[in-house]
Amino acid sequence: VFIAQSRASGSHRDVEDEELTRIFVMIPKSYTEEDLREKFKMYGDIEYCSIIKNKTTGESKGLGYVRYLKPSQAARAIEECDRSYRAILAEPKNKSSESFEHDYYNNNNTRQEPRGNTLPFCGQPEFCSFEKNESRIQESVSKRLSVVSRLPFIQEQLFALFDLVPGLEYCDVQRDPHTNSGYAVIQYSTAASAIYAKYKLHGFEYPPGNRLTVIFLEDGSDSSE
Fold first, then answer.
1. Is the pTM of this model over 0.70?
2. What is the pLDDT of residues 152-174, one digit of tens each?
3. Pick the CATH number of 16-89 from 3.40.50.360, 3.40.190.10, 3.30.365.10, 3.30.70.330
């Protein structure tokens, strides 16, 4: 909804939109900003690139930001870029960037056993940061999601909401004649898209005042993938 509003206003500079258009990547320390732009321009229109440098020496820390004009372009970059870049969504600028960079660097350079607040396949560092701030038991990841709401869903509206994340295969709204609650099954072409959708839309108020509950559903695939 807020993506649609920002498009209607002709601006992509809203705080919410920034959360969806700026990605954080791990790069060789030899990279310049032009090198970074060259590697990521194939995924969409880049507003700016920046490399994080040591304040004392001016040397690259091997980390950088890429800001796209559209959320769909940032999502595509995360989905399709080489896994060595460890691409994830960046924290908003108004949050502590140094602590975010420190956590990100540590998560991507140390192998450790998954804890209760990390995804089960944290051996793949590109997904480690998605739910690092949520305390929950380990989940079995899949390409299929269950969406529950206190209010009934409208098929077209729910499809449009989840279709903001690339790779949506189907959205099946189911109705219970005995209750007024909403229930739907969502499936994406990849587990990465499902993880991204769950991360952004679990707890999302749709319509305002009605929070969505989004969880993984078993789809018969091997979650270790």
1. no
2. 888 888 898 999 899 999 899 88
3. 3.30.70.330
